[in-house]
Amino acid sequence: MKATDFFAARLAFQTDVSDVHAALSTATVRLVDTRSTQAWTQAHIPGAIRLADLPADDGTPVVTYCWGPGCNGATKAALALARRGYAVREMLGGIEYWIREGFPVVTPTGESRRTPDPLTVPTLTPPSPARPSATSAARGMDVGVAPPSATSAAHGMDVSVAPPSPTSAAADGAGAGAVTACGVRAGAAAAGAGSMRAGAAVGSVAAEDVAVGSVAAGGVAVGSVVVVDEVGPLPGPACGC
Question: Is 162 helix (H, G, I), strand (E, B) or coil?
Fold first, then answer.
């Protein structure tokens, strides 16, 4: 058997809970529960009938279901019905995935449904984006959402919000009023010959490998963030989903 024949056959004789849910409201189909009476009483899909109550074949499409992926009762029933001439398909996932997708079931106390399982359907509220950390900021990510610290300033972040200290102002030969640490300077600080490390940008803010400004030496501009060649581009999405 060729792969095309195999997958075409699967689509011809199998369906999933989402398609069955749509078919029950838009088309004529008989949904058959192949489980025991006890299981039927515990919960079953609205509009379904028990296998014992299935009428004689009149050409109406039939869909069988069982407990879930670990049960082959629906497969056995579908084979038996196909041998009797029914146009039959098997619902993948069974009542388990029907429930997990948030569709209703009939129970002894009435119709009920559970909250959809995020492993089977998309979540209704997308997760909030994570705030960047000092480590990610030091690698060229936007740091505008969080105030910088003395440590982050030492790695190329904007330190204009923090008042300069005598110690930081005197580091690496920076000019008066400048805030410098490990080759960082802010505002209009005048840098000496050894005040900046190799690869640093000369702009409003500069660092050994990251700069936020409009001028960069040996770097690649990305919007308002400049990242030097050694850092490399940020990785793309793992897939196209």
Answer: coil
In the DSSP assignment, the letter for residue 130 is: P
Instruction: Note the Cα 140 to chain centre separation in Å.
Output: 24
Q: What is the pTM of this model?
A: 0.53
Given a contact cutoff of 8 angstroms between Cβ atoms, the answer to whether 156 and 196 are in contact is no
Task: Determine, yes or no, domain membership for 122.
Answer: no
Spell out the alpha helix ranges (H) of the chain: 3-13, 17-26, 37-42, 73-83, 94-100, 134-137, 150-153, 166-169
In a domain, 36, yes or no: yes
Domain range for 172 is: 133-230
Residue 191 DSSP symbol? B
pLDDT of residue 233: 38
| Whether residue 161 sits in one domain with residue 63 | no
Residue 199 gets the label, from left (phi > 0), alpha (psi -120 to 50) or beta, of left
Whether residue 184 sits in one domain with residue 100: no
In single-letter form, the type of residue at position 220 comes to V
Q: Rounded to 5 degrees, what are φ and ψ at 6?
A: -65, -50
Instruction: Write down the pLDDT at residue 205.
Output: 37
Res 135: pLDDT: 55
